[in-house]
Prior knowledge:
Blueprint: H1 2-25, H2 29-43, H3 45-50, H4 53-71, H5 90-93, H6 101-117
Helix pairs in contact: 1-2, 1-6, 2-4
Amino acid sequence: xxxxxxxxxxxxxxxxxxxxxxxxxxxxxxxxxxxxxxxxxxxxxxxxxxxxxxxxxxxxxxxxxxxxxxxxxxxxxxxxxxxxxxxxxxxxxxxxxxxxxxxxxxxxxxxxxxxxxxxx
Length: 120
């Protein structure tokens, strides 16, 4: 059981850090910084001993709440009916909404990350 707990802990820390990197690359600097900083704090054994478990879980939930609030403020590109503006980025040109606003915003941020990470 200890091995499973260790694997789950490190998987959570890794996924939190990776989501932070994706958000940083996708243009959500505040959210990305919060998640990367949270991943580093989760790794530090010094912080683990000082706060009770319920406080650590509460802080992590609060950070994820702020991140979700920041993601929900992302403006999606409007439908251009085939006309693409010259200054629009690649992710805006290929974006098709699904109807679920939050999921569309996450997909748009991820598409921005991929467009920025792609070789030019």
